[in-house]
Amino acid sequence: MNFNGIAFDTYFKNYPDESGFFGKYGGVYVPDELKKAMEEITDAYFTICKSSKFIAELRKIRREFQGRPTPISYLERLSNSLGNVQLYVKREDLNHTGAHKLNHCMGEGLLAKYMGKKKIIAETGAGQHGVALATAAAYFGLECDIYMGAVDIKKQAPNVARMKILGANVVEVTHGLATLKEAVDAAFEAYGREYKDAIYCIGSVLGPHPFPMMVRDFQSVVGIEARAQFLEMTGELPDAVVACVGGGSNAMGIFSGFLNDPVDIYGIEPLGRGEKLGDHAASLKYGEEGIMHGFNSLMLKDENGEPAPVYSVASGLDYPSSGPEHAFLHDLGRVKYDVINDEETIDAFFTLSRMEGIIPAIESAHAVAYGIKLAKQMKKGSVLINLSGRGDKDMDYVIEKYGIR
Questions:
Q1: What is the CATH number of domain 67-99+220-402?
Q2: Which sequence positions are flagged as catalytic?
Q3: H-state helical runs in 166-258
Q4: What pLDDT digit, counting tens, does each position of 310-325 carry?
Q5: Is the pTM of this model over 0.90?
Q6: Which of the following CATH numbers is that of domain 20-62+101-211: 3.40.50.1100, 3.30.470.30, 3.40.50.620, 3.40.50.300?
């Protein structure tokens, strides 16, 4: 399929290019001493990603440790309540550790083992990436430092406890807004000091090359599985695919399976409390081109051109930029990016829980809310939603802030 001059049947061979760019987005904007580290990671990844031994070991891990493939569930009661549109969810909440994050964390852990590294360094917002990476570190016998904002540590206490039980060192970040951006800042600083013995395992399809490509490749298992499963279940492709977008790893995972198909694709960002700067984290909808954390993408800027303060009820989405591939797909128009606010998200959180017995992560509830909205607009057809994680981590916070609805 061709879209705005891009041939999507050969898309993954051409993007990113050798310098790590998706069009004008991406690249490697890091200090010179870290460029060598990025090159080391790139060379190692391109070596092992073609290795039958690495591929076989990763497949075994996914099958015997992660519990893949995860299923697709048909939301019969919810669909019937909305009309004639049929809703389905890809159940990444049933992946080991409760979210999609383990898909790339086990790959990154295997890469670290191949490179002879002793430690994994990472950031986390909602805690799912931290838990997944702590799990990978325990599996491969590696040290693990997880940087997390003080605000998120308070909101995500269950995941903090899980990381510590798994043996990770959780480093509290207190400067700035003490959320995801600051955690990334601190993790990058630590990596700059320890890159000879450690590997930085970023939590999404962002950061300097090769991370946007590498995380997308590891997450593509979601889209590959979902496409085959949906065809087997229904005999056709979904009319629409929906996923939440913060950094964008779960979204790129499922989108990758459908980019070359005649399927509408929607990436849903957090509108939070509203359109005022500082009240949301919708960088693709409201941002402009800018460089942060080693890559060029669309980002929210303050009056000085610096990354702006952001907010979302979902700790995993409160980041002032998004992955460079999402910015590229946004400009092409291949993916439609839209927003859902906090209130719509929490309503969807309770709706899915009550009608289908599935408690979603607040991040995933953004996609569920948009899927419901889309179903009300469409007269017929089907919508596949990526349920990127489970809501166990969010229950105490939701009850404290919103009560039981």
A1: 3.40.50.1100
A2: 101, 123, 388
A3: 180-194, 211-234, 249-255
A4: 999 999 999 999 999 9
A5: yes
A6: 3.40.50.1100
